[in-house]
Amino acid sequence: TLLLLSSAPSLLDFVLFFVGIVVGAALWSLLIAWLAARQPGALSTGFFRTVNVVAGVAAALLGVAVLWATVTQPVVASPPEG
């Protein structure tokens, strides 16, 4: 994820990442609830199939990006102790 792009993420980075996930999930839940109340016909099987395909492609692309960042990240050797 984005935290992998920083060599040493701070506590603030972790907090902002967590808050972003929680806010995104809350907004998604509110959107689905709003759609169910306003337009129940819009929440068809096709709608959820489309959402799942888009989310799956996005998750796959994110996985490839994280794998690429991991593979191409240079290995930094620590100096010997003693």
List the helices and strands and how they pair.
Layout (H helix, E strand, L loop, with lengths): L10 H28 L6 H28 L10
Question: Descriptors for this entry?
Answer:
single chain, 82 residues, 0% strand, elongated
Question: Quick gist of this model?
Answer:
With 82 residues, the chain is mainly α. It is built from 2 helices and no strands.
Folded structure, characterized:
The structure is a single chain. The protein is mainly alpha-helical. It has one domain. The protein has helices at residues 11-38, 45-72. The longest helix is centred in the N-terminal third of the chain and has 28 residues, at 11-38. It is elongated, with a radius of gyration of 19 Å.
Instruction: Report, as a whole number of angstroms, the end-to-end distance.
Output: 35 Å
Per DSSP E runs of 2 or more residues, the count of β-strands stands at 0
Largest sheet: none
Fraction of residues in β-strands: under 5%
Q: Average pLDDT, to the nearest integer? A: 87
Helix content: 55-70%
The number of distinct structural domains comes to 1
Derived from helix and strand composition plus strand pairing, the structural class reads: mainly alpha
Order of helices and strands: HH
SS element count, helices: 2
Indicate the multimeric state. single chain
Low-confidence segments, ≥5 residues, pLDDT <50? none
Q: Which word captures the global form?
A: elongated
Radius of gyration: 19 Å
